Amino acid sequence: EISKIKIGMVKNYSYTARVFLPKNLIKFICFTKENSLVSKTIGHTKEITCLDISPNSKYIATGSEDGTIKFWEFYTGNLVRTLTCQPKLQQIKFTFNNDYLVSFGESRIKIWETMSGKLHRTLEISNLVTASLSPNNLNIICCLDNGNLDIINLMSGEVIQTTKTPKLSCITTSYDGSYIIAGANSGDIFIWKR
Q1: What are the distances in angstroms from CA 11 to CA 15, 102, 125, 160?
Q2: Burial class of 160 by CB neighbour count within 10 A (0 to 12, 13 to 18, 19+)
Q3: TM segments (predicted)?
Q4: Is 166 a residue whose pLDDT tops 60?
Q5: Total structural domains in the chain?
């Protein structure tokens, strides 16, 4: 039995499933309301390590150990573009306004223009463990291996705040950006009000 992960629904009474299969293929399966099947199988050459869906539901981005990020049309499964990046991606995330895709991995944060695929900026972040975007699209919150939590301006790359914390393993923000929530290696959860 092939394990499947379903990650989408189409609102016009048709159903679309994106299925991740062995050998790093992504299979886009679409059933119309007449139950006719449309299928297209495409993929990366190595393991897919991360993915994100754009807030406007137009694109899926997938990151792989093959050193690429691929943009797919959400409803058709068509490949839009392929970007070359570092092979050890931990996470990719669209900004909330859909303008940029941010990739995290190998102590590097890359900011890509969604529409053109051009690399906007590369930030070298020593000892990066994990990161999260603020909902206002202005900041990246970074957890570092030395216990620092850095808030970095997305466009300038400037560190605007540093907080000393226990070693953190994951981080996110509340939807309105008023809280930063992090999980620590110790098993504790920390919440900061901004």
Answers
A1: 8, 28, 41, 41
A2: exposed
A3: none
A4: yes
A5: 1
Query: How many helices (H) and strands (E) are present in the chain, helices listed first?
Result: 0, 18
Q: Is residue 189 part of a domain?
A: yes
Computed on alpha carbons and rounded to an integer, the radius of gyration of the chain in Å comes to 18
Q: Identify whether the C-beta of residue 118 lies closer than 8 Å to the C-beta of residue 110.
A: no
Q: 185 is in which domain, residue-wise?
A: 127-194
What is the number of alpha carbons within 13 Å of residue 50 lying toward its C-beta? 21
Q: Across residues 73-96, what is the average pLDDT?
A: 87
pTM above 0.70, yes or no: yes
Q: Does some domain include residue 120?
A: no
Which letter does DSSP use for residue 166 in this model? Answer: S
- Does any domain span residue 97? no
pLDDT recorded at residue 69: 94
